[in-house]
Request: fold
Amino acid sequence: MLAYEAAVLLAPDFAEAHSNLGNLYVQAGRPDDALLAYAAALRVKPDFAAVYSNLGALLVDLERYDVAIRALQAALLLAPETPEVYANLGQALRRSGRFREAIAASRRAIELRPDYRDAYLNLSVAAFEVDEFEVALDASRRALEIDATSAETNYNRGWLCQATGRYAEAAAAYEAAIAARPDYAQAHVNLAFSLLSCGDFARGWEEYIWTWRLPAKRAQYPYLDRATLWNGEAFSGAQLLITREQGFGDAIQMARYLPAVKARGGRVVLEAAPALVPLFEGLPGIAVSACDRGTDRALALAHGKAGTLARRNRVGWESRPRQRP
Reply:
């Protein structure tokens, strides 16, 4: 990188040096510097197709889709037979909600490179968005034929099967994704929902605990890093915070497990949507906290999720508590 930085200082009209420097900045995680380098390359050489292509790919990663589309379209005017540009354009169009155009761009990428895995993946998602489910599933199948072991292709297959009600197939695909990437939190969570939909409650609830690994969930509850995740053990003399998740129906269903939780220890605080607080305040021995007040949250010595209470109590459908909250 230092060599290219020196090169552009010594020869500011050296477009290839600016381009290569931009690529190195992308690899180094310096997108703003990469944008400046690509702009410098294009000022010197306005018909530099590779720079438009790399610029478009970077703008897709930065979620600046409208500008990315313009850059990629400029690349295609200069180099119309480049599959990578069509693939990136398809991705930008899909993320912009222009699904039909995304399908066309992805198909053109595949025409130019029949083994283009990422183009098939993008085609599958775009086709799903316009209810072309068979096209989506076929594209996902082709991606797997090209790359059967990667986490991305198997996750894509699992997501499509789950979305179309093929839960057993979805579970198998998610398991393959996890085999390729054991810490793939979203694959674990989706596997949980697929297993639960298949009636495999024991495995489903075990996987469901991975929701705590999702970045969005960790960001939602940063204060819980100071607390211990509850695993069903007795907690006499301590406080347990049951956090809110999912919708009203799930919260009401899981409330049936709270008496068994309370029987295992000290103070139980249930986090609930404000509209459900009056309903849950009648639960004996349970303190109810509205989500938007944050009451008692910082005082939790242990925490759990409402959706994991069935797991903590080791129950399935037949052994679920029959009493209503």
Notes: The longest strand covers residues 235-243.
